[in-house]
Amino acid sequence: MERVRNRNKEGFSMIRDGRPYTNENGWEDNGLITDRSDDVKNAVDEWIRQNVRAAGKILPGRTSYGMKHLLEHDTGIYLTNNEFKDAMMLAGHPPVNAGELNWRYRIVLTREINDNPSPFFQWAGKFKRDASPCGDFVRDMLACFDFPKTASHQAISSYLWQAGACRGAVDAFEELWRAYAGENH
After folding, report:
1. pTM of this prediction exceeds 0.85
2. Is residue 160 a contact partner of residue 147, using CB atoms and an 8 Å limit?
């Protein structure tokens, strides 16, 4: 197993006594997830369990700082960057370089259809093996961690527009939504 790089180029590490601490330009955050209530600890642990998987490659475009915001979006729980780093370490996800302010990880983020409460997500899952534009859309939807969990027509339409989705993806979504609405209303 590859060892975690514990120091940055200046020789500085943000792990002390096996636990993270953050020193950003002299401001120190040494708060730990273990200092939070059992309800918060359990909710954060469950979110990590459902949404984070170990991987060989570094997750591109996401750090501990950005991921803590995803957690807050999904659960309503605000954590400091250091508390989130601590939760990830305790869940078995060490940083690539503990000397970085915002830690990167060798992980993938997932959205599992069974963990999403939206009836549309659950209904659309039956198309994930289809060799069709609708099947392609559903596979992309399930693989995209940022896809809106509320899955209302408005939320999905807005997301697709903001993400710059191609016409084929938008058409596939509209076709799926019409079928979903026809079966469920």
Report:
1. no
2. no
Return the residue matching tokens 């060490």.
Answer: 94
For the stretch 64-105, pLDDT in tens is 999 998 888 778 899 999 999 999 999 999 999 998 999 999
Phi, psi of 22 (to 5 degrees): -115, 130
pLDDT in tens, 105-162: 999 888 654 455 578 888 888 998 999 999 999 988 877 777 776 667 888 888 898 8
Rounded alpha-carbon distances, angstroms, from residue 95 to 30, 63, 90? 16, 10, 11
| H or E segment and range at residue 137 | helix 133-143
Taking phi first (over 0 means left), then psi (-120 to 50 degrees means alpha), and beta for anything else, what does residue 26 get? Answer: left
Residue 181 CA to residue 160 CA, distance in Å, equals 19
Which DSSP letter does residue 176 get? H
Estimate to the nearest angstrom the gap between the alpha carbon of 112 and the chain centroid: 11
Pick from 164, 162, 166, 149: nearest CA to 111: 149
Beta bridge partner(s), residue 20: 15
Judge whether 79 and 68 are in contact, CB under 8 Å.
yes
H-run or E-run covering 27: strand 27-29
CB 174 within 8 A of CB 137: no
Q: What is the amino acid identity at position 29?
A: D
3-state secondary structure of 48: helix
